[in-house]
Amino acid sequence: MGAQAIGIITRQSPALDGRPFTEGYVTQPTLMAHARLRAGVTLQAMFSLEGLTLGRGELNPGIVGEGYIDRRHPHTYLHELTGTVQQRMGRAQASLTVGKGFAPFGTDDPMVRPFVTYPINHHLAQILERIVAVGAVRAGPLVLEVGAFNGDEPESSGDAPNRRRLWDSWSARATLLPVAGAEIQASFAGVRSPEIAAGGGTDDRKWSVSARLADPAARRYALAEWARTTEIAGGTSSFSFSSYLVESEAALGSLLLSGRLEVTERPDEERLSDRFRTPLGGHDFSILGRSRWTIGTARIAVPLGLRSRSSLSPFVELAFHRVSETLRPSGFVPAEFYGSNRIWMLSLGAKLTFGQLHGRMGRYGAAIPRQRGMTSHQTVPPHHAH
Amino acid sequence: MIVMDSLASGASLRASLIRVVACLALLVTAACGSDNTVEPPPPPAFLQVLGNGPVLERYTAEVWVRGNIAYTTTWGFRSAPGNAVKIWDLSGGGSPVLVDSLIVPNAGTLGDVQASDDGTLLVVATEPQPGSIMIYDLANPVKPQLITRYTSPNTNPGVHTAEVQRVNGRLYAFLSIDPPARLVIVDITDPRSPVEVFSAPMGQPFVHDVFVRDGILFTALWDGGVSIYDIGGAGAGSPAAPRLLGNVKPSGGQVHNIWWYHAPDGEKRYAFVGEEGPGAVASSSSGDIHVIDVSNFAAPREVARFRVPTAGTHNFSVDEARGILYAAFYNGGVRALDITGDLSTCTAAQKTVLGLCDLGLMGREIAQGLYAQQPVYVWGVHFVAGKVYASDMLNGLWALREYLRPG
Questions:
Q1: HSE (CB half, 13 Å, CA atoms) of B259?
Q2: Nearest CA to CA, how far is B266 from chain A (Å)?
Q3: What single DSSP character describes residue B330?
Q4: CA distances, B88 to each of A310, B72, B146, B397 (Å)
Q5: Terminal C-alpha separation, chain B
Q6: Contacts with B333 from chain A: Cβ below 8 Å
């Protein structure tokens, strides 16, 4: 069992019309559980309470999805509930996972990466909160995963996947584990109508390639990823959105220092009277424009052990955003909308954790790489992975 | 494959280059003196711009004109929300003059507007929740007075379009509801007490618009195509119990709007269907006009299409007396098509790869407006009394002179 919550105060300048916003939240309040029922059979669960604390969304300029724009949407209450059966087959490991969780695509969820503020490529680089069936095989340094899931994205924190959409989408991921702690993955997903729950909307063709290095014992981590989503309407490609991201973290004495650079394109959608919201599902396949965001973020955190199974980690994150439209003329001109094409964001806060937290998010069973410093039999690190 | 990104920027410059290349190609072809030369259609004329009434703080949406008054709605959020109906005086004959704005509370987009056939009512569709229609009294056309705001659980999450038509003497509003899509029909004969007479899920995934005439209902069902219903014009159907007569799925899907053309000679053979493909406001759009032969409602079939390579169509208005269809074409401005006569017969060289007649190759495009000037994104058009009024999301309301055939 584990739990976490982050108290944060964020100032964004400018946020709208040249005006700064300062807001505070409890973000990522999460309960986690992991149970081994018997040999080779595990259950894992994650409950998010963001629907209670982040109803208006969290300031996050550039992010878009699930009816929110420039604010990160709250996740669904039942973020993850999966069961995995894993079996050794000679020198290989195989597993089957069923439940609500992550499709085998892209990189780890940002919640288990260094920064509290999400990268804005979240909807390009991960597919989550779906009813999934994932088969995984690991043989030597190679892991192959294939999954089927419902294409529809959640429409609210209390929303459940649409039963009629079960298994209409699929993804596959290949991961190479050249040495302990290192992994290279490439993945593809065909997602049906993610934004219109009833189906019939544009489909997504998604690609992701990444390389990851992690050494938890030495508190070192690095990730480089590329992701692209192309929308398909009527069998024809319409718009593509690409993302490049590099991030790393290293310990310096008692400090954790992190840096992230991201260049991501996003669709600029029609906004409602609340300019941080967009119509869910829309009523056609058009967009206002497409903008390119270049974001540099630096972070300093000071992990403090409180008791044996809890910790407090005060942090500060400073982000600089540069944004410009990529289509000209454009129905959305960032400099006019925000008041500038350069946006600063400063966040101060502290992360409080209890118990055992998830160390990886987005992989299950045989697809969980062995981390540096562990034996070949030790596939679940101290922060258990799934 | 059409990649919208490639259409996105510099559309007018690209169009100019295409024209230059096309002209050079024609010159070369002519110089070669081939016996197989296909005579190119004559270049379209230009619709003269009479004036512009600017709207710069909001995105302009639909237009409706009655007499010398025009009403334009607004969409989304520019520097102000799309909650205004702009009222324009057209009596000067040149630039529309803004005389007032109606602000609709609890609305972010007013996607559609229409006056009733007797000119007594103005109906405005509102999005998002609570989806509704605003019904105004037009006793004073420049000062509409709200009679009622009709909303029900079936009008959520938003009314995308509202078509107002009379069927067997009663006035109805046909409401196309945002996903989960449904069609709602409301009897507004007594506008103080609207009565919902029909509601049903419809559309794949959208029902975007309808066209009603002579007791026949055409529904634009996106990838569900066009369905034709009897609602009192062909037998036992009624607005409360529409009776399905037929369906057709035009090539391309994404059926957005419809106009059933009645020619002066009484022929009612063709319905024109607008396809709305993906686009980006101000820079790109896609989607063809499809011509459907509806002479047999039970077996409608696509016979022709019109494509602008650099733009996609939106709403129509037809000068039925002269047989000219005016189509909004977003970044392609306004296009005028000659829709007289037989549109289903053409030479092999005038056919598309699907075997449909291509109205462009047939020389049916007779005029263009607002194209290759400043950037425009034309949402709707309304032909009235010798003028074409075009609502432009970026610039407000344009007045254009109609196209008159030579001689």
A1: 22
A2: 35
A3: B
A4: 67, 8, 18, 9
A5: 42
A6: none
Each residue's pLDDT tens digit, B368-378: 999 777 899 99
Chain A residues within 8 A of B83 when measuring between CB atoms: 273
How does pLDDT run across A136-169, given as a tens digit for each residue?
Answer: 999 999 999 999 999 999 999 999 999 999 999 9
* Distance (Å, whole) CA A197 – CA A151: 8
A267 Cα to chain B: minimum distance (Å): 9
H-run or E-run covering A52: helix A50-53
Tokens for B184, please give them.
């709602």
Query: Buried b vs exposed e over A116-134: b needs ≥16 C-beta within 10 Å?
Result: bbbbbbbbbbbbbbbbbbb
List the single best residue of A284, A333, A338 to mutate versus B (max B Cβ within 10 A): A284
Q: Which two tokens stand for residue A386?
A: 């799934």
B236 touches A: beta carbon within 8 Å: no
**In sequence order, what are the residues at sequence separation of 6 or more whose Cβ sits closer than 8 angstroms to the Cβ of residue B263?**
B269, B320, B323, B340
Q: Confidence class of residue B9 from pLDDT cuts 50, 70 and 90?
A: very low
Amino acid identity, residue B375? Answer: P
User: Cβ of B42: how many Cβ atoms within 10 Å?
Assistant: 9
Q: Pick the closest to residue B371 from B404, B338, B336 (CA basis).
A: B336
What predicted TM-score, i.e. pTM, was given to this entire model?
0.89
Q: Do A332 and B281 touch (CB under 8 A)?
A: yes
What is the number of other CB atoms lying within 10 angstroms of the CB of residue A25? 20
Tokens 């520019």: give the residue. B78
Sign for the CA dihedral angle at B349, B353, B354, B357 comes to: negative
Burial B61-71 (b: 16+ CB within 10 A, else e): bbbbbbebbbb
Instruction: Give the gyration radius of chain B's Cα atoms.
Output: 21
What string of DSSP letters covers A171-207?
EEEEEE--STTEEEEEEEEEE--TT-TTS-S-EEEEE
Q: Do B394 and A331 touch (CB under 8 A)?
A: yes
- Exposed (0-12), middle (13-18) or buried (19+): which is A350, by Cβ within 10 Å? middle
- Whether residues B277 and A285 touch (CB distance < 8 A) is answered with yes
Q: Is A170 helix (H, G, I), strand (E, B) or coil?
A: strand
